[in-house]
Amino acid sequence: MSDPTIAVASTSRNSDIPQKFTIDDTDTNSHRRSSSKLVGAPLLYTITCFASLGVFLFGYDQGVMSGIITGPYFKSYFNNPDSAQLGTMVAILEIGALITSLLAGTIGDKIGRKRTLFWGATVFIIGGAIQTGSTSFMMMVLGRIISGFGVGLLSMIVPIELANHRGKLACIEFTGNITGYACSVVSLSTNMTSNTTNIAQWLDYFSSYIKSDASWRLPLLFQCIIGGILALGSLVIPESPRWLLDNDQDDEGFRVLVDINGGYYDNAKADKEYREIKDAVEQDRLEPDRSYKCLFKKYKARVFIAMSSQLFAQLNGINVISYYMPLVMISAGWVGRDAILMTGINALVYIASTVPPWYLVDRWGRRFVLLSGAAVMCFALTLTGWWIYIDVPVTPTAVVICVIIFNAAFGFSWGPVPWLYPPEIMPLAFRAKGVSLSTASNWAANFIVGELTPILQDVIQWRLYPMHALFCACSFVLVYFLYPETANVPLEEMSDIFGDSGATEEEGEQISLHKQNRIARQSSVSLPSLASFTEYDRRHRRSEPNLHKSIINNPIKTLKKWIYKSKSTTEDPESSDSYERLDNTDV
């Protein structure tokens, strides 16, 4: 018995496709499967894993310094840097990230999401290599700022790439960040925000047993290896279907949607997503102005929410812990390797706390997760300052407990959600620019916190923690009164939530008409025909033979071919010559 959803899809196709391409529902070829070997859930998780390496890298690079700066060999090599020098060495990464995050929106719109991912990883590797081979304070600072350039690209483009999938997969990305953080204390650190830092922290701990300069060079070298894996992975993951459709590469965009939804051409869900995205693209093109000025004019509420979410993610105090956790432990009474060990244990809990949002961020909603997290973080930071102030025998243990509770609350809430929220509330035409601004606000606050924390720890001491608790309280109020719930709302329908629909108040009647006719418009969108899909699929197979083997056997030639294909398809996506030239290129 035939599936009624398939029948409906087939009927709607036949009405939109030229007669010579009309699909015969009795023909098994109408259910043609994509030639891609990786489709459906495995493809989604592959995209998520590789994209999460981008956040792993900046989580790792943040976390790795927290353990390195307390090491005796590091201090000796750099002539015992003072608090101001340590602050500069740690926080200069954010300056580089701030600069490129402002440019990343334009870059991402121009060359695509996956190519931005590749170049971000490449720049990061260069910066990591300079850090690893540093022979002076200024050389270390140079390596940090170059790595920051790469991080700025990655931290902007990864949330956009994963915004296509949202919810669980976007939160998995943050777990990758914290995992990197955890590795670094031991000498690695956890997730985009959590996981990466954790790995870095545990790497720091293990490296503390090395009795040479390798104790701090090895953790810095590790980030180059992960960056290389990300760069290679960016060659095999698909481009964002929304970017492809926005750049008139409809066949390839539809093929990506087909692959994501199981790999079969005759798929009702792929049909629906294609129509929704294509309709959104066509509506966005009615407004040709895609400048930052237009973004602020028409979507100022969305811009404010996106930027404030990232701003408070840093002002809430997470980097007081992520960057300077060993110093926090020392101020509480833990010394030497025990301080690093406590940081590593905290990092493991931090990673674990990022797992529940995989399942709860869509079920409970973004607002509840942010509100509950802000309340717990405020309570934990207040107690941290109080225990350090009274300085009693149980202070070291009490501070560790409070810090672990704080990190768990952040990993559950303000860690993943501010990276999920901005890309999903921004309209497609301004998504890259909007996320670019929100990411820039993150890095600006990140730099300020990283630069001032070691100084404030010396000057105001225990009062630093209640100060950040106040920011947590402010973020609670902001979310409660201003942040709308976006869970389970399609990206193309966010305008209904904010009531702007990309138009001014004088165009209210047009907005109403837009809402009433959306379904009718989407049903009239012409899907790529089976013949077109088959032809593109054939070209795809011929132009990318055995790509995985090619990368291993001849990575340089594979890279040249990939870059050439990127250029040719971007300049002339309908040119068959570009495919034929690629077909004749041996790899």
UniProtKB/TrEMBL annotation:
Q: What is this protein called?
A: Major facilitator superfamily (MFS) profile domain-containing protein
Membrane topology summary: Multi-pass membrane protein
Example GO molecular function term? Answer: carbohydrate:proton symporter activity
User: Which segments carry the region annotation Disordered?
Assistant: 566-587
Q: Where is composition skewed (Basic and acidic residues) in this entry? A: 578-587
Q: Which UniProt keywords apply?
A: Membrane, Transmembrane, Transmembrane helix, Transport
Alphabetized InterPro entries for the sequence: MFS_dom, MFS_sugar_transport-like, MFS_Sugar_Transporters, MFS_trans_sf, Sugar/inositol_transpt
Please list the reactions this protein catalyses. Answer: myo-inositol(out) + H(+)(out) = myo-inositol(in) + H(+)(in)
Chief location category = membrane
Organism whose genome encodes this protein: Wallemia mellicola
> What sequence ranges are listed for the domain Major facilitator superfamily (MFS) profile?
47-487
Localization in the cell: Membrane
Q: Which GO terms describe its cellular component?
A: membrane
Q: Mind telling me which PROSITE patterns this protein's record contains?
A: MFS
Domain of life from the UniProt record: Eukaryota
